[in-house]
Every structure is written in C-alpha cells, then in structure tokens.
Amino acid sequence: MPLYANTIIDKHLGLIAYGGNPRQTSYRLWTEQELLPLVVHDGNAVRGARYYDGFIFEPGCDRRGGMISPRYLGMAGPASKDGWQQAADALFAEGRNMAAVMNLSRQLKPWEHVDCWAALPYPQDAQWESFGSIQGQNIAFSGNPDGRLAALIWWVRAVESGWCSTSALYPGHRCRMRGFVWVKNSMDSDDRTIVASLAKMLDQQRLKLMWCANYGTSDAHLGEKLGFHQICLRPTFTGSGSRGQDWIKHASDFASEHKLGLVVWEPAERRAQLDAWLTSLHEHYAGGVHVYEMPASRVASWHRHHHPYYGLLYRYMHGVRNTMRSGSEHRDEGLA
Fold it and tell me: Which Pfam families does this UniProt record tie to the protein (predicted)?
C-alpha cells in the first residue's frame, strides 16, 4: 500500500477540535458562522475561494468527560460506546461541524472542494471496564486487540452512515469524505496490528488512513509497512535551550526525504516570528501535506479582528498550492 504524500492528499488541512473535555464544562459544536472564514477566504461568497483545503474533525471527550481522543490519555477516564456514539453523532449535528462545512462549501467555486477527515477515537488497551456491545458481544479493551479493532470498525461505519445521510441534505455541496486519522503520536505493538487491519478495510472502500506522529517517533517513516496512506510529522522540540527554527528545518527535511506530511501550529504571538517560521517551512517543505493544529477559534478570531496572521497564513497556503502538480487531485477518491 503506497504512501500518497505528493499525489493523493497534497492539501492544507485545518484541525477542528469538538466535543467535551475532562472537566465536563462544555460540549463544543461549531456553527456555520464560526467556520465560514475557515472554509471561504474572507467569508466572501462572491469570490468563493477556499481558505483551508479540508478539515480534520477531532472529538475530545464525551459529555461525561470520558476520553475519546488519545490527547487526553492520563487526563480523562474511559469512555463507553455511548460516548463514542456521541462523537459520531456530533460530527453531523444539524447545522454544526461537518454538516456546517457541507453547507458552506456550496459557496465555493464549482471546481473547488473540501476534504473531510475524522480523527479516530483511541481504544485504550488499559481500559478494563466494559465498553459496550458490538455485534451482540460485550467487550472490554484490556488484552483484547480484536475487541479494540471491532470498536474502531463500528465507529467508522457509524461515521460513514452519518456522512451519507447528511450529504443528502445538502445537494451540490463540495465536500468529500477522504478518510480517518490516527492522532496518537506513538505506536504500540498491538496498535500496529489494529492499524494494518483497519487500513486494509478502509482501502477497500477507497478511504484513507492518516497518522499524525511526533518527529522522532519510532517507525514514523514506515507508513507503507504500517498501512497508512499518509503520515504527518509534528516537529516537537526535544533539544535544550530556546525553541528555534532548527527543529522545523530538521523535521521538514526528514519529511521531505521520506515523503511525509508536516503538522504546523502557531508560534509565539509575534508576527515576525510567524512570518519567519512560514518562510522556513516554504524553503524546506513547499509542496507537501500540511496539518494545521492552530485552534480554529483563534484563526476565526484573526479574521474577525482583521489580524494580519489570517492573510499571512492564506498567502502561505496559496503559494504552496501553486507548487503542486495539476495531476494530483485524484477526484475519484473518497465519498462524495
């Protein structure tokens, strides 16, 4: 199964975190108004130009504070099947999240589209509590890789079902369901087996599996053997002293050499530094896949307050888009 770093995905993907948190203080769903400047540049339907090329929707916790995303490992208790179902349902809540993006995408130019991805819940091996019933069998994850895989397959199918029913409500939308994202930044031995089986199933459905891994993570460059169609490296800082641009350069060079993507987030609140970081990325990494882990609310705030970061990021993405081959679209991939 080949990596498609520069032939299939070549996109700029914004991360949309939704759902709950360990403190159970709120359950976040995104409205069309909030997402408009992230879908349509400047929120201008007349121009109809994309801002991001697509989105990764990542659920955090369930409404009771149970862990859905592996980012909350060690910070939240286990989630049950009901919590996972909440995450799938919330993706397509009326007028929110992916449903909102579908409707907004109808403002884009006819030849533009929006790629949608769903971040996978993490079935933690240490979870000995009952998860729930899958195909009539009550399962727990501890010491049970088959049960962990069954839960993931169940959730994927719930998302696919939600996509198909919601898509019918927005005729003419410009969205495509491209696949799913494994956001846990490292890989355990049982994880590898689960990922390989899941990737095979998704490949049969012409859907993709992406991994957002930390730079330096073991096997992160072996995406073809692991089953991933795309791996994006998060250039984490592990050295001493101040965090400089070298950490971006090293991760970018490694990503370019192995045809991997790169995860980008906002540096300190100084435009000169953001400008320098984007310049460094362009010099070392133009033309590859980018996942932007900048909070969606912050990017929307840049637009609302006419902050120069909003235009700066758009110009960077637009410039990188112009370096990409015209034959890289593969419009037959994914679910329309």
Answer: DUF4855
- To the question of pTM greater than 0.85 for the whole model, the response is yes
Domains and CATH numbers, the chain: 12-321 (3.20.20)
Rg (CA), the chain: 19
pLDDT tens digit sequence for 293-323: 888 999 999 999 998 889 989 988 887 655 5
Please, is 90 exposed, middle or buried when counting C-beta atoms within 10 Å of its C-beta (0-12, 13-18, 19+)? buried
Residues 126-164 have pLDDT tens digits of 899 999 999 899 999 999 999 999 999 999 999 999 999
CB atoms within 10 A of CB 46: 8
CB 13 within 8 A of CB 268: no
Closest CA to 232 of 296, 320, 291: 291
